[in-house]
Amino acid sequence: MEQPGTAASRVSGSMFSWVSKDARRKKEPELFQTVAEGLRQLYAQKLLPLEEHYRFHEFHSPALEDADFDNKPMVLLVGQYSTGKTTFIRHLIEQDFPGMRIGPEPTTDSFIAVMHGPTEGMVPGNALVVDPRRPFRKLNAFGNAFLNRFMCAQLPSPVLDSISIIDTPGILSGEKQRISRGYDFAAVLEWFAERVDRIILLFDAHKLDISDEFSEVIKALKNHEDKIRVVLNKADQIETQQLMRVYGALMWSLGKIINTPEVVRVYIGSFWSHPLLIPDNRKLFEAEEQDLFKDIQSLPRNAALRKLNDLIKRARLAKVHAYIISSLKKEMPNVFGKESKKKELVNNLGEIYAKIEREHQISAGDFPSLRKMQELLQTQDFSKFQALKPKLLDTVDDMLANDIARLMVMVRQEESLMPSQAVKGGAFDGTMNGPFGHGYGEGAGEGIDDIEWVVGKDKPTYDEIFYTLSPVNGKITGANAKKEMVKSKLPNTVLGKIWKLADVDKDGLLDDEEFALANHLIKVKLEGHELPTDLPPHLIPPSKRRLE
After folding, report:
1. Where do the Dynamin-type G domain residues begin and end (predicted)?
2. I need a surface site. Which of 50, 61, 131, 416 has the fewest CB within 10 A?
């Protein structure tokens, strides 16, 4: 049998291991092989006891389970009906999925988790919430009215190998939102928001409208602004001038609702495979789609960091919650007048918040919503609340100060040692290579497929300038080249890069071909394109190309 010391040295030598030397509480060191395992153990041993002691799960969020730490990154789509949520998923995976319904009326009336599976099929909500391999068990608390409107669509898709996508019912507007859903829609979305990696809010550029229910939903996502991205969909249905007005109106409306100084990232486009109705902004749509795809493709690589960040947010909220509950317990009388005192404390909860903020130097942003907390406290029995237990809080502080820092190092190690993780397949592969890749044949890529040197067509014009710059032995000095190049008004940093690219033979002088190349690169930059890091083969002057 292997000696404990041998096992410890072997594991500590592993690239994914670290040893927690918390001698005050444990003699045996904790060994974590992966970030997910480390998060799971830290939660169970250090944060969960605090949550249970102060009934955190009754107020905020159910306890986390193993599946919450191991599941793939999830993308949550939220929007009013007919904004193109289901079509967006269809566009990403490039195939139909079970339970998919698309139409101008409210068609998706369920939460559908689109996930990877060996065969196509549907799993109903009641079966999903008893499956320990799925991260949905705690949704059981929302009852049958919700579970009858929750399902999982499984299908073999390369996109779903890396991420899962949650389709949601269209948020109602006008008269329709008066119809009761039978469950707390905003609370369900908030549950998902805590666990997903990206929240995409979809808006229809053709009929921009933010209903009261949608406003409430966005406010429910208040603590997850870092996960939110906005898509202004169906932008090909309106003219450029109108699109600018719609974009401005959307930013103004979001600014009022989200109420943060940071501007939310908005992607403009038409996310489906149909021809563009008004193709004027085709290049803008292509660039925006590529940016959004890159954002989604980065999710698997950043999944461990996101889970670590969410655990830190949860720990901070749990600490504040413990201070609130223990403060209420402290203020309660032992025998008489409990009910009247309870009403007084609930009404004066804002003052208790301010007192805790001062005494414990806690940021106001860490406190839960005052109105929501007052509503939840109305039904609670304050006599069952627990007094402050410093040992539990010290354990969480130790976790935040020491263990999380070590896990952060592990996150970077895992990222560097894993192969380049990115979402593949479906629409993500459509423009990666070939002439339909974003920017192919434009800017520095112009002439990539031409037999003739692309700079050659403008070379006679550049030659006229070249021979006015006093060439010696067919070459001009850097000083003479600079006099001409600065006329472009480009910054010296840019012109310096152009010089390095154009001086192909690195002799500190430019011949007529190199000077023409420098002017071509200046034109590329002035037209708004980026310069290449290295000179592409098709831009190398003919006389400088090596014969194979």
Report:
1. 69-300
2. 416
DSSP assignment of 368-386 equals PPHHHHHHHHTTS-GGGPP
| CA-closest candidate to residue 327, choices 313, 312, 341 | 341
Q: Would you state the structure tokens that stand for residue 152, as one six-digit string?
A: 């999982």
404, 87 in Cβ contact below 8 A? Answer: no
Q: What DSSP element (H or E) covers 18?
A: strand 18-20
The β-bridge partners of 113 are 152, 166
Mean pLDDT of 122-140: 89
230, 201 contact by CB (below 8 A): yes
Contact 383, 332 (CB under 8 A): yes
Residue with tokens 């830290």: 42
Take residue 112 and report the two structure tokens written for it.
């559908």
Closest CA to 478 of 496, 460, 452: 496
Largest CA distance in the chain: 105
Closest of 102, 80, 76, 82 to residue 90, by C-alpha: 102
**CA separation for the pair 497, 530 (Å, rounded):** 11
Q: How far is CA 423 from the centre of its chain?
A: 13
pLDDT band at 106 (very low <50, low <70, confident <90, very high): low
Q: Among 137-151, 162-176, 322-336, 450-464, which is the least confidently predicted range?
A: 162-176
pLDDT of residue 431: 58
Degrees to nearest 5, angle at CA 331 with 328 and 333:
120
546 DSSP 8-state letter:
P
471's CB contacts (< 8 A; 6+ apart) are: 511, 512
Q: What angle do CA 224, 254, 73 make, to 5 degrees?
A: 30
* Domains assigned to the chain: 35-65+305-417 (1.10.268.20), 74-298 (3.40.50.300), 445-544 (1.10.238.10)
- Each residue's pLDDT tens digit, 417-431: 665 667 777 777 765
CA distances (Å), origin 12, targets 8, 19, 20, 172, 320: 6, 7, 11, 54, 35
Burial of 332-344, coded b for 16+ CB within 10 Å and e otherwise, reads eeeeeeeeeebee
Report the sign of the C-alpha dihedral through residues 471, 472, 476, 477, in that order.
Answer: negative
**Cβ-Cβ contacts under 8 Å for 46 (sequence gap 6 or more):** 395, 396, 398, 399, 403
SS3 readout for 37-67: HHHHHHHHHHHHHHHHHCCHHHHCCCCCCHH
Q: Where are the alpha helices (DSSP H) in 361-511?
A: 370-377, 390-398, 404-417, 427-430, 459-466, 478-485, 492-502
Give mean pLDDT, residues 141-145.
88
